[in-house]
Model the fold of this input.
Amino acid sequence: MIADLESYPEWAPEFTEIEILAEDGDGWPDQVRMSLDATAVKDTYVLDYDWDVAEDGTGTVSWHLVEATVLKALDGAYVLAQHDGGTEVTYDLTVDVRIPMLGMLKRKAEKVIIDTALKNLKKRVESLTG
Done:
């Protein structure tokens, strides 16, 4: 699910457009352009991905910001581990913006991004796996 970046707008409405710019030899997306409309933060940006994931689905998917207009940092990772017959996902994210923003608005935007990354992802996985 995490690697299917082009489907993000289906389950994460804050993403309005996803374009895979480059893939590695295994078909994993390496560089991706994303358009985000998360209330206080609206931007189109490019991320570089690193896929350190084993065949059993464990490992780390990390990304870092390459270019953006509003965002100054958008770096993070999903750490995937086997847990009680399923997959435990740990999410790490660093977000910063170039424009001055009230702390309250910044926290709201961060919450939207985190909720999308975890809660909406969980709902998507559960809806497809039953």
